[in-house]
Amino acid sequence: MDFLKDKKQLFKLWIGVLALGLVVLAITNYRVNFYGNSRLLPVSLGIFTVTTFIVGIYFHKARYIMHGAAFMIIVAAAFAGFANWLPQTIGEPPPLEEQIEDISTMSQQELADLGEKLIFGSVGGSTVKGAIGKGQCPLCHVFGSSDHGERAPNMFGLPDRSNEIVNLDEYINRDTVQPVSFDGSGIAETGIEYMAESHACPNCYVSPGFGKGGTNDRESPMPAIHKSPINLTIDEMVAIDTWSYVREGIDPPSVDEMRAAYEKFIPEDERPQVSTGTEEEGGGGESQLYATGDESLQEIFEKAQCTVCHVIPGIPGADEGDFGPELYVKTNAPKRMKDKNYAGSASSVQEYILESILDPNLYVVPDFDEDLMPEDFGTGLNAKTVFRIVNYLSKIEKGKDPPNHEEM
């Protein structure tokens, strides 16, 4: 009872109870947030810091130990907080390739739905702004009847237009960097063959005005979509073509006809196969990563299709893209982070680049269109690949020689 009458001791008792409560709160927060993606984990360190200061003030014998511990916790919390508030990339295995059934057994509408999913990421995705599926078509093409494509032709009306193109003199006598898909393939004679050829060999015929800059429409900026990084199978491309017909109320050719059209322009050794996911094949299906990170930087930028849209100083073949800003990021990033329209949270050039890769619409550079850059790089690029991209781009400065990409 005398103890309780001693106000000083009683006060210390309450301080001790408060400190104990704070410790319990800190431990609870730590346990709840440790395994998730929450950025509240450093709060635990903050609570521990407050606790040690309180104990150090009112328990004189432990003051120096407690204040020393508090200082160390503050340092740890600063590092943890900084790291935790950076845009996060989770090092998870690539998603499994979704297996599709034999398309010969699908109804016309089921096959068209599959095509829409491959183009836009989901059935009904054609009505969603910025939706992009495995085929990545909306990255360059538009699909509305009244839309005007600036990067590539409008895909609306393609079935009828294809029948007209194969009869044009400029198509039959084309002068391109790759006049035929492969030796002996010949050229398209029907509309469905033209659609297949344009996917398998974009350079075979380039729609006027949509050629790669400086090539006078002799070379296309579009990659062959049966090759890396897109790797669509013939059946997947057939599904896409089916959707192109069905959505316009046109009966598509049969699956066998469309398959034959693609086989005309894709040699057998180039036809990608969908993994069955068996143990012999690794059990994980075909990887959807753009790159593994072990390639050269030039290959990484090409596989991620950065070179289609951007000028990347120092990277061979990345000097003509004009759909996205030139990547003098070390020069431009500080200015953009100060722009009143900047909605991100980056505080360094490296953070800005990472943020632009993972969430490109946080800041859209003036005079460039929103929703043009894919938003799936968070899953399509692993941590190693992102690190190499960020490391290189962060060193590119206007007016100075770019770093040697072969050494990075």
Lay out the secondary structure.
Layout: H1 2-5, H2 7-33, H3 42-58, H4 63-85, H5 108-120, H6 158-165, H7 169-172, H8 191-200, H9 234-246, H10 255-265, H11 297-303, H12 306-309, H13 329-337, H14 349-358, H15 377-380, H16 383-393
Helix pairs in contact: 2-3, 3-4, 5-9, 6-8, 8-10, 9-10, 14-16
Short description:
This protein is 43% helix and 0% strand. The protein is mainly alpha-helical and 408 residues long. It folds into three domains: 2-85; 103-281, no CATH class; 297-407, Cytochrome Bc1 Complex, Chain D, domain 2, CATH 1.10.760.10.
Which features does this protein show?
mainly alpha; single chain; elongated; 408 residues; 3 domains; Cytochrome Bc1 Complex, Chain D, domain 2
The biggest sheet amounts to:
none
**Amount of helix:** 40-55%
What's the average pLDDT? 80
Count of distinct strands = 0
Q: Note the gap between the termini.
A: 73 Å
- Radius of gyration computed on alpha carbons: 29 Å
Estimate the global geometry from the Cα principal axes.
elongated
Strand fraction? under 5%
Class based on secondary structure composition and strand pairing: mainly alpha
Q: List the helices and strands in order.
A: HHHHHHHHHHHHHHHH
Low-confidence stretches: 88-97, 275-287
Number of helices: 16
How many separate structural domains? 3
